[in-house]
Design brief:
Blueprint (H helix, E strand, L loop, with lengths): L1 H16 L19 E2 L5 E3 L2 E3 L2 E2 L4 E10 L2 E6 L2 E7 L8 H13 L2 E13 L5 E8 L6 H7 L17 H12 L8 E6 L9 E5 L4 E4 L2 E2 L1 E2 L8 E4 L9 E8 L15 E5 L4 E2 L1
Parallel strand pairs: 7-9
Antiparallel strand pairs: 1-4, 2-3, 5-6, 5-8, 6-7, 8-9, 10-11, 10-18, 11-15, 12-13, 12-16, 14-15, 16-17
C-alpha cells in the first residue's frame, strides 16, 4: 500500500514539474521570471533609459479596455480612465493597417503591466495621452505584436524617449515586411464586378491569404482560375472609390509584400480592372 502511494506521488510530481508554461498567443514568449522580470525583443523605457529585461515592479498594473486609435489604447489605471499612446508608433498609417491594428488591440484587452514615465503627448486626432508600453503577464508586448504583424509604422523622432527603442522597433518591422523572396503576392487580379453577382473579386497567390481592401476584410472562398486565394465582398469595386489600398496577410498575420516590396498595393480606380 505504501509503495502504491509513493508511486502515485512521484507520477503526480513529475506531471507538474515537467509541464512547461506556454503562451496562449502562440508567439514563443514565456511568463516573467520568478523575480518578476519581463524580457521582450526590444524591452521598454523606464526613467528615460531602455531596459530589457525590465522588472514588473517598475510598472503599474492596469486593465486595457479598448483601442483609442491604431497606436493608442484606453486603460483603467487605479480606477481612472487614461489613454496610452504606444511608444514610438507613428500616427501615419494606411486605412488597412489602422483597421488591422485596431483588431489586434481589441484582442489585447484585459490585465497588463504599464511601463511609463507619464510623458504627455497628443494623438493625431488631437486627443491628449501619455506615452508608454504594455506587457501582458505572459510576456507579450502589445507594441511588438503590432510591429511583428505589420500593423504599425515606427516614429523615430518622438519626444518621450522614443529613440531608446525606435531602432529596435524598425528592425522588427523590417523583419516582418521582408520575408523570403518567394513569399510575395503574384498572379493578382482586381475584378470590380463578377458576372455571377456583380460584386468585387480579388484573386491572387499564394493560397490561404487574407485580403484587406481599404481596411475591409474580404472573405476567402478558396482557389479559382488557377490562383490560390479568392477574396469576395458584398459590394462592387466602384464602392471603394479611387486610390484603393490592398494589403495581404498570411495565416500568421504577417504581411505578404507585393513584387515591388511594398506592403500596400494601390488601385487607382476601383471601377477598373487591374492585374499583374
Amino acid at each position: 500500500m505504501h509503495r502504491f502511494f509513493i508511486i502515485t506521488f512521484l507520477c503526480l510530481f513529475s506531471a507538474v514539474s515537467c509541464t512547461k508554461p506556454r503562451s496562449d498567443d502562440g508567439e514563443g514568449v514565456t511568463p516573467p521570471t520568478q523575480s518578476g522580470e519581463f524580457t521582450t525583443d526590444c524591452g521598454t523605457v523606464v526613467g528615460g533609459v531602455s531596459r530589457n529585461p525590465v522588472n514588473a515592479s517598475n510598472g503599474t498594473r492596469v486593465t486595457v479596455t479598448g483601442a483609442a486609435a491604431h497606436n493608442a489604447v484606453t486603460i483603467n489605471r487605479n480606477g481612472t480612465q487614461q489613454i496610452v499612446k504606444l511608444r514610438a508608433l507613428s500616427d501615419s498609417v494606411s486605412s488597412s493597417i489602422s483597421s488591422e491594428a485596431t483588431n489586434i488591440i481589441s484582442d489585447f484587452t484585459g490585465d497588463a503591466t504599464l511601463f511609463t514615465d507619464d510623458c504627455s503627448t497628443t494623438l493625431g486626432n488631437g486627443t491628449g495621452a501619455i506615452v508608454g508600453d504594455l506587457i501582458r503577464d505572459n510576456g507579450v508586448s502589445l507594441t511588438e505584436r503590432l510591429l511583428k504583424r505589420g500593423a504599425a509604422n515606427v516614429q523615430a523622432n518622438g519626444t518621450c524617449s522614443d529613440t531608446q527603442v525606435s531602432s529596435c522597433y524598425s528592425a522588427l518591422l523590417d523583419q516582418n515586411i521582408q520575408p523570403p523572396a518567394q513569399n510575395v503576392v503574384s498572379n493578382f487580379i482586381w475584378r470590380p464586378e463578377t458576372t455571377s453577382d456583380g460584386w468585387l473579386a480579388v484573386l491572387l497567390d499564394p493560397a490561404g491569404a487574407t485580403i484587406f481592401v481599404n481596411g475591409d476584410r474580404l472573405v476567402d472562398v478558396g482557389p479559382s482560375e488557377g490562383r490560390g486565394t479568392t477574396g469576395r465582398t458584398n459590394k462592387p469595386g466602384c464602392a471603394f472609390g479611387s486610390n484603393v489600398q490592398v494589403q495581404v496577410f498570411n495565416s500568421s498575420g504577417a504581411i505578404i509584400p507585393f513584387p515591388n516590396g511594398e506592403s500596400t498595393y494601390v488601385i487607382p480606380d476601383g471601377c477598373q480592372s487591374a492585374s499583374f
